[in-house]
Amino acid sequence: EVQLVESGGGMVQPGGSLKLSCVASGFTFSPQVMSWVRQAPGRGPEWVSIIDGVGKMAYTDSVKGRFRATRDNAKNTISLYMNGLKPEDTGRYYCVRGDFQYDFIMRMFEMNRGQGTQVTVSS
Q1: Which residues pair with 49 in a beta bridge?
Q2: Terminus-to-terminus CA distance in the chain, angstroms?
Q3: Per DSSP, what are the bridge partners of residue 80?
Q4: CA nearest 101: which of 5, 29, 36?
Q5: 57-103: per-residue pLDDT in tens?
Q6: C or N: which end of the chain has fewer Cβ atoms within 10 Å?
Q7: 53: CB partners within 8 A, 6+ apart
Q8: pLDDT surpasses 90 at 112
Q9: Adjacency order of strands within the sheet including 91-97
Q10: Alpha-carbon distance 42 to 91, whole Å?
Q11: pLDDT at position 103, please?
Q12: 3-25: pLDDT as tens digits
């Protein structure tokens, strides 16, 4: 059974930082492409970043230069370092198994995500 457990969310002021983490189990982690997807209140899911098995990363334009994804294959973990947070970064952040950069299939998202962790950026 695929399990993804996110942690690290919270409430911060604009300009603040957070580190999100996701521990994976139930599948062979090291070659697996992993994504971070967020969902703001009242909006659909939005792909945020992707990291492949060797650490190659990509980001949506709105977070480039502020967010950084990493992975530790020995610990079956990916992380998302978020700096310079803005109110528009507010949302629930999900760790997702798979590539959602170009083709976002809702059914696949629902089947391959964790429960998410809430990030709120507010003064």
Answers
A1: 36, 59
A2: 40
A3: 20, 69
A4: 36
A5: 999 999 999 999 999 999 999 999 999 999 999 999 999 999 999 98
A6: N
A7: 30, 31, 32, 33, 73
A8: yes
A9: 10-12, 117-121, 91-97, 34-39, 45-51, 57-59
A10: 10
A11: 87
A12: 999 999 999 999 999 999 999 99
Burial of 100 (0-12, 13-18, 19+ CB in 10 A): buried
Measured in residues, the chain has a length of 123
Structure tokens at 65: 């230069």
Tokens of 43: 């909006």
Distance CA 40, CA 93 (A): 9
Amino acid in the structure at residue 25: S
| Residues facing 23 on adjacent strands | 5, 77
Q: How far apart are CA 1 and CA 43, in angstroms?
A: 29
Please, what's the b/e burial string for 54-63 (b: 16 or more CB within 10 A of its CB; e: otherwise)? Answer: eeeeebbeeb
- Other CB atoms within a 10 A radius of the CB of residue 6 amount to 22
